[in-house]
Amino acid sequence: METPGLVVHGEAAPFSTALRSLLNNPQYSDVCFLVGQERQEVFAHRCLLACRCNFFQRLLGPKLGSGMPSPVVLSTVPAEAFLAVLEFLYTNSVRLHRHSVLEVLTAAIEYGLEELRELCLEFVVKVLDVELVCEALQVAVTFGLGPLQERCIAFIEAHSQEALRTRGFLELSAPALLSLLRSDKLRVDEAELVLAARSWARVGCAGAAGGRGGGPGGAGAETGFAGPGGAECPGRAEPAGAAHPGGADRRCVEMPRSAKRGCGPGRPVPPPEGNPAPGASLLSGPAL
């Protein structure tokens, strides 16, 4: 009776290095992506992407035919984040950076890459700081990442004054802002919280009036995330030459009349001394 064979393993490092050399290498590639707003060319190999990721298996299936198909446009995922996704698919490892990890996390969620998602979440927790925390909160609220949302709110509670002055705070969506205002542990007095909320509303209304792609309703321009109701998601492909919608729905959302911690939504609160007179809207500004 023949004995079962024994599986032996060679060194993993040379294998990973060899696959890494194929990353974005036009030689032997059979698919080209046009990635990000700049439509940067990224070359890849259909069989490798299809066997590693169900999203690409569906996207690059038989309908594309043999040979080099037309470029596949992925306009809403930044090129750096997309290359990080490919690096993970090719080598099962990835180099993450603080400035782009939320974009990689977003792409991992959209493409259904659970292991990469967990790696990104672990990294975000390690590098979380005042400048990153509100952007991370936005991603957590958008994709229902409860543990990350709790970690972000706890961090903001401990660094309230600094976090409320960041660009990320001004660019929170209404649901993300409400999740923060419900906390009764923010280390900031009510007057400062009211001013911060009014600044948030002004930025959102200015963005809606000017038609630009920033402000409440989605994460900031630096992250490139589309907020709730946004036009695209990083995993959505479109034919080459298609017009890009121009970003998410950036609308000015009316906030509850009270930002007082512990008060229910819509419940009026007497304004603190030196702030809006009784009867004035908490978030007065351009008409909604």
Briefly characterize the structure:
It comes from Acinonyx jubatus. The protein is mainly α and 288 residues long.
Helices and strands in order:
Blueprint: H1 12-20, E1 31-35, E2 40-44, H2 46-52, H3 54-59, E3 72-74, H4 79-91, H5 101-110, H6 114-127, H7 130-143, H8 146-158, H9 160-163, H10 167-170, H11 174-181, H12 190-210, E4 238-239
Parallel strand pairs: 1-3
Antiparallel strand pairs: 1-2, 3-4
Helix pairs in contact: 4-5, 5-6, 7-8
Structure description:
It is a single chain. The protein has 288 residues and is mostly helical. Among the domains are: 12-62 and 70-125, Potassium Channel Kv1.1, Chain A; 128-205, Serine Threonine Protein Phosphatase 5, Tetratricopeptide repeat. 43% of the residues lie in helices and 5% in strands. It has twelve helices and four strands. The protein has helices spanning 12-20, 46-52, 54-59, 79-91, 101-110, 114-127, 130-143, 146-158, 160-163, 167-170, 174-181, 190-210, and strands at 31-35, 40-44, 72-74, 238-239. β1 (31-35) and β2 form a beta hairpin. Mean pLDDT is 78; it is low at 212-288.
Q: What is the CATH topology of the domain at 12-62 and 70-125?
A: Potassium Channel Kv1.1, Chain A
Structural class: mainly alpha
Number of helices: 12
The CATH class of the domain at 12-62 and 70-125 is: Alpha Beta
Q: Report the β-strand fraction as a percent range.
A: 5-15%
Could you tell me the radius of gyration in angstroms?
23 Å
The name of the CATH architecture of the domain at 12-62 and 70-125 is: 2-Layer Sandwich
- Quaternary status: single chain
Average pLDDT over all residues: 78
How would you write the strand order of the largest sheet? Answer: 2-1-3-4
Taken from the alpha-carbon principal axes, the silhouette is: elongated
The number of distinct β-strands equals 4
Fourth CATH level, the homologous superfamily of the domain at 12-62 and 70-125: Potassium Channel Kv1.1, Chain A
Between the first and last Cα atoms, what is the distance in angstroms? 82 Å
Region (Disordered): 230-288
InterPro entries: BACK, BTB/POZ_dom, BTBD19, SKP1/BTB/POZ_sf
Domain BTB: 29-98
Pfam family, one: BTB
